[in-house]
Amino acid sequence: IVNWAFSGCTALTSITIPASVTTIGSYATSLTSILVAAGNTTYKDIDGVLFSKDGTTLVKYPAGRKDTAYTIPEGVTSIGDHAFFFCTDLESVTISDSVTSICDWAFEDCTSLTSVTIGGGVTSIGAAFYNCTSLASVNIPDSVTSIGEDAFWGCTALTNVTISDSVTSIGGYAFNGCTALVSVTVGDSVTRIGSYAFRGCTSLTSVNIPDSVTSIGGSAFYNCTSLTSITIPDSVTSIGGYALYNCTSLTSISVAAGNTAYKDINGVLFNKEVTNLIQYPIGRTDTAYTIPDSVTNIDWCAFEVCASLTSVTIGGSVTNIGNYAFALCCKLSDIYYNGTEQQWNAITKGNGWNEDVGRDVDGGYTVHFLGDLPQREILASGTCGDNLTWTLYDDGDLVISGTGAMYNYYDTYK
To answer: What pLDDT does 194 receive?
Structure first.
């Protein structure tokens, strides 16, 4: 019996599987009972629920059943693909300790499911709870070593998750679109956070990344619009593209001092050599920023959607500006380039690097070529803040560069 064989049979409430059937697909959503002939050598039923003959795999729970709770019997070791698909009346499920594997889509679209108790024998969770939109809490036991791709995709009621120390991998899209998720504690054995793992978790304010993590996948925290800060531990050697894209509340990115691949300067993320500017925290309210002179590459989307920036100074060493690097910096009116116009034109600029730059500014943005200005003599210079310098030129100009608070000269010299 293939997948979708009884799809759309909305009045079908029971079915009897004859002894001859050896394969059964999914997607019959109105059934309240599944009966299996006693002579069938592949399947059996227990109280109208379909199991493998030896009782180790729960194959199909009838989706039309009106019971709100179900306990998976002892002896079951695997919950099969789509086993509880579209069981919209189920509110709670208890998974016995004998279960070791929850397969992909096992509880897909169980939209009334509010709680799940996972037994201590489960070692892996596939894309099991996809679009369980009422699931508010889940206990992941110490036996689990892997949370698969799409495991909790679209669980929009899930508010807090603690990932046990036994888990070594969080799959791609694992918590994608969990819009109520406020905090995540990642266990000390996790080595990989997959691509898009927490994409669109718009309520996520904090995440703890332990020293065990070596890889953060592309777009891992994409559109986490409430995330205010993040710390990259020593162990991380790979951060995928767009990992912190559109985190509009992010004001600081910190990197542990012992990290050999990355570093931060005043909360801005660079590679260790400070030749690649990876991500400027776009929730910052600073209006000006000076890119370090050592930088040769400004990464894709590095400043995209920086709503407060009005001026940026780019060093003469830059040879590449990535796609959408300054896109949607709508208040950015002045780009100061420490080189000539000819050198600026030689820089490789990616698609949309200046899309909507200066959109909210009368006349748009202007690039100022500092290398084309007459050379001036420096009369004096010094520091005027933790990250600020001042320079007095012979034409009377006083230039203050950097970001941060100035020293309080008024209280010092009044």
So the answer is: 97
d(CA 255, CA 230): 9
Question: Residue 31 in contact with residue 54, Cβ under 8 Å?
Answer: no
Q: What is the pLDDT of residue 376?
A: 77
Secondary structure string (H, E, C) spanning 248-309: CCCCEEEECCCCCCEEEECCEEEECCCCEEEECCCCCCCCEEECCCCCCEECCCCCCCCCCC
Residues in the chain: 414
List Cα–Cα distances, 187 to 152, 209, 256, 378, in angstroms. Answer: 17, 8, 18, 54
User: 386 CB contacts (<8 Å, ≥6 apart)?
Assistant: 404, 405
Phi, psi of 412 (to 5 degrees): -75, -40
Model pTM?
A: 0.83
Residue 48: predicted pLDDT = 93
pLDDT of residue 195: 98
Answer for the pair 9, 65: CB distance below 8 angstroms, yes or no. no
Closest to 156 measured CA to CA, from 176, 142, 170: 176
Cβ–Cβ < 8 Å for 118, 141: yes
Q: Residues 221-259, buried b or exposed e (16+ Cβ, 10 A)?
A: bbbbbbbebbebbebbeebeebbbbbbbbbebbebbeeb
Q: Residue 192: CA atoms inside 13 Å, Cβ hemisphere, count?
A: 17
Low-confidence ranges of the chain (pLDDT < 50): none
Cα atoms in the 13 Å half-sphere on the side-chain side of 179: 6
Residue 200, C-beta contacts closer than 8 angstroms, at least 6 positions apart: 176, 177, 178, 179, 222, 223, 224
Cβ-contact 301, 321 below 8 angstroms: no
